Amino acid sequence: MKLAVVSAGLSLPSSTRLLADRLTSALVDRVPEVEVEVIELRDLAVDIANNLVTGFPASRLRAAIDAVTSADGLVAVSPIFTASYSGLFKSFFDVIDHDALAGKPVLIAATGGTARHSLALEHALRPMFAYLRAIVAPTAVYAASEDWGAEGLSERIERAASELAGLMGKEQPVRAQVDEVVPFEQQLAALRP
C-alpha cells in the first residue's frame, strides 16, 4: 500500500510540513505496512512553472506526479494565503491529469497564521478535490499558529488519519464524540444582560 504526502510549505522548516508529518505518523500508526513518499512542492516550483508554460514535466516533476497518481491514498497540505490554498499547491494539481485522482482517498489539511482562515479547507481545498472526483475524508485538519501544542489538534489529526485509513480499506473510522447540544434559545438567553 502506498501513501503520497504533498506538502506545499515554502519555508524551511515549515509548519505545513510539520502538520503533514504528524498526519502521516498518525496514519502509519494505523497502517504500518504503508510506503510513504513525501513530495515537497517547494523543491519542484520551477519544474511546475515550466510545465505550465510548456506542457512537459521535467523528470523530477513526472516522478512526483506518478507518486501521487499511483498512491492508494493522499495527504495534501497547503499553507493558506489570502483565504485560499497557495498558488504552488494549486499549480501542482493543475499539471496532474484531471481524471488521475478519481476515486482516490484524500485527507486535506492546511496551516495558517490565524484561525480566521480555517474555512479555506471547506471553500477551496474540498471543492478542488471534489472537482477532481477524489474521495475526501470528512475531517479536514487546520492548524493556526496558536493550535500547535493546544488542546484539540492531536484529536483532529487522529480522527482524520482514522478516516483516511478507513477510506483506504484498512480501518473502521473513529466516530467523533459530539458534545451535548445546547438549545439556541438557551445560548441567546446567556448573552442577554
UniProtKB/TrEMBL annotation:
Keywords (A to Z) from UniProt: Flavoprotein, FMN, Oxidoreductase
Molecular-function annotations in GO: FMN reductase (NADPH) activity
Tagged with keyword Transport: no
SUPFAM superfamilies: Flavoproteins (SSF52218)
Annotated ranges, domain NADPH-dependent FMN reductase-like: 1-148
Enzyme class, broadest EC rank: oxidoreductase
Top-level taxon of origin: Bacteria
This enzyme's EC code(s): 1.5.1.38
NCBIfam families cross-referenced by the UniProt entry: LLM_duo_CE1759
PANTHER family noted in UniProt: FMN REDUCTASE (NADPH)
Protein name: FMN reductase
Protein's organism: Nonomuraea dietziae
